[in-house]
Every structure is written in structure tokens, then in C-alpha cells.
Design a protein that fits this description.
The protein has helices at residues 43-55, 112-122, and strands at 2-11, 14-20, 30-31, 34-36, 59-70, 73-82, 91-97. It has 128 residues and is an alpha+beta fold. It is globular, with a radius of gyration of 13 Å.
């Protein structure tokens, strides 16, 4: 099993979504940005490192908002905050979306449970 973390970056009631670029598996689908947790690394440290590497972005990690397993990937999503805007690298687009708009997007397979967690959180449910 591969542990992967992703950031649900929230700003002014909207969340950041990133579209996977042409060189990435599941190209053209949307995801919450993040990446693999390395051996000996905490989820928080991995998420901070991955967003710095992928988007040249510094984030503060908050509560877990959801998790799920697809195939060999166990994805854990965390609420996060960040200043400024991300810089595109592997992704070919980022957008700020209202939580209610998320179900209409075509998501990377592992992100489905995180979307459900974001919708619960946005409806007033507590983060996990």
C-alpha cells in the first residue's frame, strides 16, 4: 500500500483544485495536490514538501478531511491554508472552486473519497 497525502487548500470559501498535466497518469483529471509519504516522514511534512516541490507553494496543514483507498493507493486529505498563488509545474491548470462545484469535475480515481469529505466539511460537518 502506498500512502499519499493531499491538500484541500481553502480560501474565502473556495478550494483549490489542480488538473493533472499531459505527462501525468490520469492526465486531464482534477485532484487535490499532494504526493507520496516517504519512509519516516509524517503526513504533514510530506504535504509541505510535496506542495513546495510541485507548486512552489508553502502551506499550513490542518485537520484531516477524508481518506480512502483505491487500488494500492491510500489517500489522506488535509485542510490547508496558503498565501499567494501556486506556480504550475506538473499540473496544467489550477482553479478555485466552491465546494458545491466539485462533483461536476472529472476527478482522478483516488480523490473521490476526499471530495466526499470536503462536501461533508462544507455542509458543516467536522473534519475527521
Amino acid at each position: 500500500m502506498i500512502r499519499v497525502v493531499c491538500a484541500v487548500v481553502v480560501r474565502a470559501g473556495r478550494v483549490l483544485v489542480a488538473r493533472r498535466g499531459p505527462t501525468m497518469p490520469h492526465s486531464g483529471t482534477w485532484e487535490f495536490p499532494g504526493g507520496k509519504v516517504e519512509a519516516g516522514e509524517s503526513d504533514e511534512a510530506a504535504l509541505i514538501r510535496e506542495l513546495r516541490e510541485e507548486l512552489e507553494w508553502s502551506v499550513e496543514v490542518g485537520a484531516c478531511v477524508g481518506e480512502g483507498t483505491t487500488g494500492r493507493v491510500h489517500l489522506v486529505g488535509y485542510l490547508a491554508t496558503a498565501d499567494g498563488e501556486p506556480v504550475l509545474g506538473e499540473h496544467d491548470a489550477v482553479e478555485w472552486r466552491a465546494p458545491s462545484e466539485l462533483p461536476a469535475l472529472e476527478w482522478a480515481p483516488a480523490d473521490g473519497p476526499i471530495v466526499a469529505g470536503v462536501l461533508r466539511w462544507a455542509a458543516g460537518g467536522a473534519a475527521n
